[in-house]
Amino acid sequence: MCTRLAILILMFKEQMVYQASGNGLNLTFTPEELLSNKIVPNTTSSGGRNWLELITGCFQGLPSECPVQLWDFSHGGSDIDAALLPPHRNTTVQMVDQVRLWRDYAADLLPRPEGKTLTTWWTGINDCTHISNNISITDNDAYLDADIEAYFRAVGTTARHGLRTHLFLTAPPVYRSPFAVKVRTGAEGYKKMLDSFNQKLTARMVKYARDNPSQLILSFDASSVFLDILDHPNHFGFNDTTTFCIECEDQEHRFWHTEEHPTEHVHRILAKAVEKYLRNPDFVY
Ligand SMILES: *[C@@H]1O[C@H](CO)[C@@H](O)[C@H](O)[C@H]1NC(C)=O
Ligand SMILES: *[C@@H]1O[C@H](CO)[C@@H](O)[C@H](O)[C@H]1NC(C)=O
Ligand SMILES: *[C@@H]1O[C@H](CO)[C@@H](O)[C@H](O)[C@H]1NC(C)=O
Ligand SMILES: *[C@@H]1O[C@H](CO)[C@@H](O)[C@H](O)[C@H]1NC(C)=O
Ligand SMILES: *[C@@H]1O[C@H](CO)[C@@H](O)[C@H](O)[C@H]1NC(C)=O
């Protein structure tokens, strides 16, 4: 199958596999920089490959030379919108800025054949963490609503520039990661926030699909895949779901690579599940 996917925006604190801007402070890049920028192998948050590299087979080198092209504009540590949450680091490019970069400097240069282009969106963890940790935010619900609106304004921007098939992934249950104890509200409060984010995301997706009947909206419950593994680790070949080890050579039996990022093994299971879903997708409408 020779489909070309222009895959855009995966979040989950992925490192910039494809370094579109290279420097968060200078949000521009030239066509030459864009088209010569290579995917650096094994530099994702899993320590190895991530789900999109596994699905596309685009592990390294120029995206344009991959059988299924992967154009990744995601950026580690980002939230959705700087107007709501300030960038965590001075190099962080928030999601709406990733979209703006794509629109201004990449959209007209990259392939996006109709019917052969899938745009993927996976975000929410950092927003839930930063809202949970922010004592000046008292109405979490209203904040999440505003956050999700900013999210879908960005989706609308990509649609106006030719991206018309969108896959949304639910935010995974990082409240079960070693990181959860560091969140101000504890694992339980963090779970509430993430569950609420996912409920609002799902409802907003349905509204977006109804408002935009000419676009294809796909929804994949990544959270369930994570929970299935965490609840039945042995079944999937894991024996450690509670600790993490960045330096360990043998990552196969571990769920967590860093305190909140899963190993490549988890990404492989996720990639298979997403591929299976895409073969027989259930559209949101
Ligand atoms: C930002 O990047 C562009 C394109 O690479 C370059 O022309 C410009 O000089 C840079 N600006 C700064 C302030 O570094
Ligand atoms: C990346 O990691 C995989 C295993 O996860 C390994 O097979 C591959 O050789 C590595 N690639 C590079 C270029 O290091
Ligand atoms: C960004 O942050 C790093 C470390 O936190 C610091 O060394 C650097 O000077 C900062 N850069 C700017 C432009 O503020
Ligand atoms: C906390 O939330 C307020 C809005 O209520 C925002 O202005 C501020 O930048 C946030 N701070 C952090 C560290 O996220
Ligand atoms: C998990 O399995 C690996 C590989 O067989 C082994 O080295 C490790 O000690 C086991 N860990 C636990 C917590 O049982």
TrEMBL record:
UniProt xrefs under InterPro entries: GDSL_lipolytic_enzyme, SGNH_hydro_sf
Signal sequence annotation: 1-19
Keyword annotations of the record: Signal
SUPFAM superfamilies according to UniProt: SGNH hydrolase (SSF52266)
Residues spanning the membrane: none
Protein name: Carbohydrate esterase family 16 protein
